[in-house]
């Protein structure tokens, strides 16, 4: 039995994402006797993942099951009302719902115990339970998911299928040349492997400011990719 989860950006940058996801999902189904797809609702990309899994289940009803992963707070004391409020997916369309257990450890840097699992904790929980991962991550956007994907790649028992597109990688590279000077400098330096400490000395700013400048540059690139994606739809 294969257990397949999905991991990527919240946004979608490629007009062909549905076909790319469907091909990846079909590959997992073809190569395994049974498949459970774990879908975490966390943005447009994950909505596309659910639709791809749903199409696969319609073709192989005895072979494919779909599990939705939700935060505990969605259901605590609110039952089906919480499902209807927080999910566009009808309850009858999924095989089961899983609420990841809360990490009872004390949150780092605070004395307050966490009451719901964080985004990172949920992704780690999914990775630990999966045999396959369908990944849609552009590392050149330097998002938090980069470190989580590194963790996934270190799990040699996990089969990773990448559905990112080389054309979008090139579009990201083209955007860099249009960034404001400081954002371009920081972006290119980090891309080349330079540490933030070197940039703080060179630019006369602290580490948090370097991260902020990088984040601003990546946000501009993401906005361009969104515009590029939407332009193909209309």
Q: Layout of helices and strands, plus pairs?
A:
Blueprint: E1 2-8, H1 17-30, E2 35-40, H2 44-59, E3 64-69, H3 79-86, E4 96-98, H4 119-129, E5 132-136, H5 145-154, E6 159-162, H6 166-176, H7 181-191, H8 196-203, H9 207-233
Parallel strand pairs: 1-2, 1-5, 2-3, 3-4, 5-6
Helix pairs in contact: 1-2, 6-9, 7-9, 8-9
How would you describe this protein?
By secondary structure, this protein is an alpha/beta fold. The chain has 9 helices and 6 strands. Strand 5, helix 5 and strand 6 form a beta-alpha-beta unit. Helix 1 crosses helix 2 (44-59) and helix 6 packs across helix 9. The chain is globular, with a radius of gyration of 20 Å. The model is unreliable at 75-86 and 106-112 (pLDDT under 50).
Summarize the structure.
The protein is α/β, with parallel strands linked by helices and 234 residues long.
Widest sheet: strand ordering = 4-3-2-1-5-6
Radius of gyration: 20 Å
Helix and strand run: EHEHEHEHEHEHHHH
Structural class given helices, strands, pairing? alpha/beta
Shape: globular
Q: β content, as a range?
A: 5-15%
Largest sheet: 6 strands, parallel
Distance between the termini: 41 Å
Query: Mean pLDDT, nearest integer?
Result: 84
Say how many strands there are: 6
Count of DSSP helices?
Answer: 9
Residues in helices, as a percent range? 40-55%
Uncertain stretches: 75-86, 106-112
